């Protein structure tokens, strides 16, 4: 799996996790969903993605976007 796909899979998992936490635990977990969405938007414009940096440090092979 490339770095691009790893980042997308991680972001999708975080969105799903935050929705489950919002429904089952507390409505304020919706802010976690907002944070993930804002991070995805800023990384699209700036190319800076903390998750990509972490995955790269873990040795995931590079993709075309990161």
From TrEMBL:
Boundaries of every Inner membrane protein YgaP-like transmembrane domain copy: 2-56
Domain of life according to the entry: Bacteria
Pfam families from the UniProt entry: YgaP-like_TM
TM stretches of this protein: 7-25, 31-55
Keyword terms of this UniProt record: Membrane, Transmembrane, Transmembrane helix
Designated name of the protein: DUF2892 family protein
Gene source species: Oharaeibacter diazotrophicus
């Amino acid at each position: 799996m490339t770095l691009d796909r790893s980042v997308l899979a991680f972001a999708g998992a975080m969105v799903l996790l935050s929705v489950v936490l919002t429904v089952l635990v507390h409505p304020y977990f919706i802010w976690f969903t907002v944070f993930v969405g804002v991070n995805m938007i800023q990384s699209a414009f700036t190319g800076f993605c903390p998750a990509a940096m972490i995955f790269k440090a873990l040795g995931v092979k590079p993709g075309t976007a990161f």
